[in-house]
Recover the amino acids of this structure.
């Protein structure tokens, strides 16, 4: 056996010290246990046993969401739920079977109720049916003496008067999920049966303000959990009323217009303030159905619909801005001095660059055009040339100045930031880092990497119309607190340049060759629309198809072009900016522009 | 047979080794686990489903595994120390990158057939690695700051990862268990003084970095009555449960706090409160005594070992086990903030049981091979 080294001695000494420390801690814990259980025991026993004070949580009423005029968009409505207390019912199944003869109660509902009853303590009521109709309430109420253990409870349920029309910005409330309950910020209120929380849209984003504060009732209950009497009550605090900038009437009207198409979205902005007056994505779902609870088929139907009813395309749909981007290219060129009002470009119907032929949509060519003419007829060749002369970085900078490439931050969970490519962006990519001139050519007409949401395009239009940095917002006030706003500051663009672009946008609608002339403001309206059409390629047109003369209309729906339109009215004093995107709508001028005209006409009547 | 006889021949037989395994410790562990089964049954309202049955099945699998760990030569564990540490560390990083969200914090990783919580495994792997590092280190080395830097980094790195998960409790166990091994290895006392000072200095910074819910828990701990319906709810209900148990408890399945679901997380972090409510001070103190006996055994096992690795491992893991108990019971009795540390062997959870029983397997391996030099 070797002799103990100094290190051995240190180890032994410290091991004993550590052991003593642990013994001391155990003694401390034992002492604490004795204090709680033996010394304080009687006090805690009182709390827990004989006269247990139960803090019962009183759920708050959820705040309303109203439109700018105060009309309700989401409100609480009284509903009736049928509850059963198992230990009072004795033969719960028999009673529920008898109930089946009185009200509509599926067998599954009985099974669910019995399962719930078997799981919990007998004195806690379980839900039998959530939404009773008035006749059902009446039918059950008169028979209650013969149905022991049953009771009808009044609850508040969420109603969305606009239904699908405002589904996306509002979202919906739903039952608390397991995941919500396990979140670190979860509060005891979430475990109250039937409590609903925001699951999507503003209902989710503004959950904290809308929910309010739970109240509490101190209730004396006996050891079996039965209620003896109420001792004190702290009433719940109602959730804040949220006032939106949306106009319910306009929102519904826009949704009605968009229903003409299979899949579309539209945004209406109030230009002087940036207030969002309408924000519609079609098709939509009915949020009231979510509150009621969806059947599996309904849910499957929503998931498989190619129009993506669950997605808010107005703020979350990304599209190439296509020809609606030509104002950006024009302004970038004017500001950079690479193009001026008299600059003319000859359009032979195509543009050759880098050994590649870029086609103008008008294969016959537009002849010689200036910027106003090019905007009016949406000549691609003009912008290919001007874009190439100006360079991608100047174009990208102008796009950002006009609100593209960054999230508009309305506060909706689904908002996307879009993409404005430039050389730095491409250099940061993993492969294919070099920016090619051909990419500038297609970016100049809003194709290629460019992506924007309808909301962003509406903001761009509002900024062009006003020359100011219009920032969109959707929430006017939360409770008494109005969101702080400042008047939008000027963009600092040359007034002459802006006027030139706006002249082009006006000629789109009123000029004899304008691509949107069929959708000018109704005659005698006393106001005019300025705008721009756009048609975004969903997939490349092959030369073979071009040669074969295949028209876009002949393709299957999902391969047709997207139709876009941006515009504002009145021309003289811009008030409303609008963007309409019709997915696979073939042509901006033919599909999107008429919708925008109808929408702007509705807005002008507000 | 004298233990040195084990090494008089080339290799002792398995039968000889099996006789050396300390069956007393296994009995103590089984008692603790059985108390857990009873408490889990009560937590499910008298049903073995969903917790007690599964917990018992796991125990039945881990028990022979623990004995197997004890029989494997200590030098194998010595050789595996660093791979185990870095492997677990990689898992911890993986949790950060792709971890599933469990209980609001990223702690779990799904290996397909089983979900593991790498931070639990790290508690064992860290002690293993530190014992390996300090094995045979002479006094001069242990007093040199340069020599002390790697083990401090080995403690700090997983602690930082666990902290961002965020899991305050596990980070505390890692830090304290690591410090205990450093202390036992003979690290100079100024290191611990300095550590305390650094900790005190870091408190304001750490406060700033805490999640809101963690801050709420600390504030609640300081003043539980401030928000009895919110963050203070758990601890108030836990204290009522324990206190109302009195001297002899309310009896099996009779805990009203637990039965009426006043007690939060009663199958995991608050299982001690359920136990103390149903079995009273007698049961609670008995449980603490059981823990005390296990700690005494660990200390005795460590002191009988010859090799530095063996004794550091045995005592480090024992301290680790005790820390779980101290922090968990301190938490449910309102002595510490609620940080989410399970009660070893009683709280429902597979990885925690795996780590604790694996740890005891290593303690026994150290004891079985106590006469060897590695």
């Amino acid at each position: 056996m070797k002799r103990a080294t100094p290190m051995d001695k240190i180890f032994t000494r410290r091991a004993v010290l550590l052991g003593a420390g642990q013994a001391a801690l155990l003694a401390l814990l034992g002492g604490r246990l004795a204090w709680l259980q033996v010394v304080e025991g009687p006090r805690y026993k009182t709390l827990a046993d004989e006269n247990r004070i139960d803090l019962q949580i009183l759920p708050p009423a959820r705040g309303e969401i109203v439109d700018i005029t105060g009309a309700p968009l989401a409100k609480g409505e009284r509903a009736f739920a049928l509850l059963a207390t198992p230990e009072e019912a004795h033969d719960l199944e028999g009673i529920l079977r008898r109930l089946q003869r009185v009200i509509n109660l599926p067998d599954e509902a009985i099974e669910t109720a019995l399962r719930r009853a078997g799981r919990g303590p007998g004195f806690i009521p379980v839900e039998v049916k959530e939404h009773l109709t008035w006749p059902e309430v009446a039918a059950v109420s008169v028979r209650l003496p013969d149905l022991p253990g049953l009771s009808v409870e009044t609850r508040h349920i969420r109603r969305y008067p606009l239904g699908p029309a405002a589904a996306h910005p509002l979202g919906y409330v739903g039952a608390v999920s397991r995941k919500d309950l396990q979140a670190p910020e979860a509060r005891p209120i979430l475990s109250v049966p039937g409590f609903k929380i925001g699951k999507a849209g503003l209902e989710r984003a503004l959950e904290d303000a809308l929910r309010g504060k739970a109240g509490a009732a101190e209730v004396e209950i006996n050891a079996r959990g039965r209620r003896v009497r109420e001792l004190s009550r702290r009433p719940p605090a109602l959730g804040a009323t949220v006032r939106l900038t949306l106009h319910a009437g306009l929102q519904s009207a826009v949704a009605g217009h968009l229903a003409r198409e299979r899949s579309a979205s539209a945004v209406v902005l109030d230009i002087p303030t940036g207030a969002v007056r309408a924000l519609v994505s079609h098709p939509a779902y009915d949020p009231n159905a979510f509150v009621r609870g969806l059947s599996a088929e309904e849910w499957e139907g929503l998931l498989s619909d190619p129009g993506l009813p669950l997605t808010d395309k107005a703020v979350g749909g990304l599209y190439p801005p296509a020809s609606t981007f030509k104002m950006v290219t024009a302004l970038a060129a004017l500001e950079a001095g690479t193009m001026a009002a008299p600059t003319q470009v000859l359009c032979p119907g195509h543009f050759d660059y880098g050994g590649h032929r870029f086609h103008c949509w008008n294969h016959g060519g537009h002849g010689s055009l200036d910027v106003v003419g090019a905007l009016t007829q949406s000549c691609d060749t003009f912008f290919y040339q001007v874009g190439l002369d100006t360079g991608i970085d100047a174009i990208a900078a102008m796009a950002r100045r006009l609100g593209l490439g960054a999230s508009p931050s309305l506060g909706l969970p689904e908002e996307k930031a879009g993409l404005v490519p430039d050389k730095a962006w491409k250099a940061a990519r993993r492969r294919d880092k070099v920016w090619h001139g051909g990419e500038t050519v297609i970016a100049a007409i809003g194709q290629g990497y460019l992506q924007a949401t309808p909301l962003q395009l509406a903001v761009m239009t509002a900024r062009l119309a006003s020359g100011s940095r219009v920032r969109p917002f959707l929430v006017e006030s939360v409770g008494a607190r109005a969101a702080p706003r400042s008047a939008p500051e000027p963009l600092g663009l040359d007034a002459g340049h802006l006027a030139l672009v706006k002249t082009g946008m006006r000629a789109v609608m009123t000029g004899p060759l304008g691509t949107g002339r069929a959708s000018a403001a109704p005659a005698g309206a006393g106001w005019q629309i300025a705008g721009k059409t756009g048609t975004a390629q969903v997939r490349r047109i092959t030369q073979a198809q071009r040669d074969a003369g295949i028209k876009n209309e002949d393709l299957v729906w999902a391969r047709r072009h997207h139709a876009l339109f941006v515009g504002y009215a009145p021309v003289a004093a811009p008030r409303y900016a609008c963007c309409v995107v019709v997915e696979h709508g073939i042509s901006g001028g033919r599909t999107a522009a008429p919708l925008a005209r109808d929408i702007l006409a509705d807005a002008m009547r507000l | 047979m004298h233990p040195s006889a084990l090494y008089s021949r080339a290799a002792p037989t398995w039968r000889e080794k099996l006789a050396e395994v300390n069956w007393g410790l296994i009995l103590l562990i089984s008692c603790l686990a059985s108390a857990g089964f009873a408490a889990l049954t009560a937590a499910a309202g008298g049903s073995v489903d969903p917790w007690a049955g599964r917990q018992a099945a796991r125990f039945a699998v881990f028990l022979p595994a623990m004995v197997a760990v004890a029989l494997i030569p200590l030098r194998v564990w010595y050789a595996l120390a660093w791979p185990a540490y870095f492997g677990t560390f990689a898992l911890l990083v993986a949790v950060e990158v792709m971890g599933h969200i469990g209980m609001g914090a990223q702690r779990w990783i799904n290996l397909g057939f089983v979900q593991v919580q790498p931070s639990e495994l790290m508690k064992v792997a860290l002690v293993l690695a530190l014992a390996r590092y300090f094995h045979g280190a002479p006094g001069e080395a242990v007093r040199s700051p340069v020599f002390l830097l790697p083990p401090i980094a080995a403690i700090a790195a997983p602690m930082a990862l666990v902290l961002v998960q965020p899991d305050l409790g596990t980070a505390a166990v890692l830090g304290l268990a690591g410090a205990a091994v450093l202390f036992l290895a003979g690290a100079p006392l100024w290191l611990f003084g300095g550590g305390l000072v650094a900790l005190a200095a870091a408190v304001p910074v750490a406060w700033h970095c805490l999640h809101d819910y963690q801050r709420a828990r600390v504030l609640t701990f300081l003043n539980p009555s401030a928000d009895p319906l919110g963050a203070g709810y758990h601890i108030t209900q836990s204290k009522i449960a324990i206190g109302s148990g009195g001297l002899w408890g309310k009896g099996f399945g009779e805990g009203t706090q637990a039965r009426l679901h006043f007690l939060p997380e009663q199958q995991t972090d608050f299982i001690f409160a359920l136990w103390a409510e149903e079995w009273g001070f007698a049961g609670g103190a008995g449980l603490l005594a059981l823990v005390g006996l296990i700690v005494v055994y660990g200390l005795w096992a460590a002191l009988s070992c010859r090799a530095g690795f063996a004794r550091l491992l045995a005592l480090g893991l024992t301290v680790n086990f005790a820390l779980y108990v101290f922090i968990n019971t301190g938490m449910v009795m309102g002595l510490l903030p609620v940080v989410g540390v399970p009660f070893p062997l009683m709280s429902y959870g597979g990885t925690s049981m795996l780590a604790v029983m694996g740890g005891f397997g290593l303690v026994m391996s150290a004891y079985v091979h106590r006469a060897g030099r590695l």
Notes: The first strand of chain B starts at residue 100 and ends at 102. Residues 271-303 of chain B form the longest helix (33 residues). The radius of gyration of chain B is 21 Å. Chain B has a mean pLDDT of 82.
